[in-house]
Design brief:
This protein is α/β, with parallel strands linked by helices and about 270 residues long. The chain is built from eight helices and eleven strands. Helix content is about 25%, strand content about 30%.
Length: about 270
């Protein structure tokens, strides 16, 4: 008996790759870039085929052939949001609406892509003081929270606080607490068209947050959750009247004449 081979989920990790080249401490923490650390974590799952992309590559790392072949895009950006071309942001938006998953990390909340999909400014409050962060799991039954305890403890983190200018999340999975007392909706999901979006806030480049096993678990879970769910919801198609009538006749539903009398469909 022939057994088909299951196709792997194609994941592209995009990182602007600026801080690692300009800051020696960030380079020490992520010697192969944030994208390299995330790729190593995701490649532990055999069902994932992982590639990386950076801003300085041709077509800013996402030529049409790569983007069209991507099932889930992971996005990290901060210092170079403005350098991302508008047409690339539009192409990513179109791909999400058509069914591609998107996982947006940390300061990617102000990326052109995330703001286009949210339709808001996505601004927040912040403070960089190396404070303790507790990422509380408020939706433990959600697949993105699978395998976690009550919370994730991060020793040093950048504070992100409310108000956070996003549309009301469809699902809220994590709420972060910081030493200064602030709280933040740091793990939330939305759907746009046929595509799923997950935003996850921990991940300031100056701290080794993406080396944390539970943070890696959340991102991996997020990628698996965001995978395409089916064919695109928006499929423009003109259906001729005669074709519609043929379908009605073929399936034999009840049909009424102009006077409202039941007419048996023709065989």
């Amino acid at each position: 008996m022939f057994v088909g081979v299951m196709q792997k989920l194609s994941v592209t990790i995009w990182n602007e790759f600026v801080h690692e080249r300009e800051n020696a401490e960030v380079a020490r923490i992520y010697p192969r870039g944030i994208h390299g650390t995330l790729a190593d974590a995701l490649r532990q799952r055999t069902e994932l085929a992982v590639r990386t992309a950076t801003l300085d590559e041709p077509d800013q790392g996402l030529p049409p052939a790569v983007l069209d072949a991507t099932d889930v895009l992971v996005w990290w950006g901060h210092a170079a949001h403005a350098a991302v071309k508008d047409d690339l942001a539009a192409r990513v938006q179109e791909r999400v609406i058509a069914g591609m998953g998107l996982v947006v990390l940390h300061s990617g909340h102000e990326s052109k892509i995330f703001m286009r999909l949210m339709g808001t400014g996505c601004h927040l409050c912040w403070r960089e003081a190396g404070e303790r962060e507790r990422v509380w799991v408020v939706n433990p039954g959600h697949p993105i929270a699978a395998g976690l305890g009550d919370c994730i403890e991060i020793e040093h983190s950048e504070m992100y606080g409310e108000p956070f200018g996003i549309p009301t999340p469809e699902e809220l999975i994590f709420i972060s607490w910081f030493e200064g007392g602030e709280v933040f909706r740091g793990g939330a999901t939305w759907t746009r068209g046929s595509g799923r979006i997950f935003y996850f806030s921990p991940g300031h480049e100056a701290y080794p947050i993406y080396h944390h096993p539970d943070i890696q678990r959340v991102i991996t879970n997020g990628v698996l959750w965001a995978r395409p769910q089916g064919r695109p919801a928006e499929v423009p198609r003109h259906v001729p009247v005669e074709q519609a009538r043929q379908k009605i006749t073929a399936h034999g539903p009840s049909v009424h004449d102009a006077a409202g009398h039941l007419v048996s469909p023709k065989s």
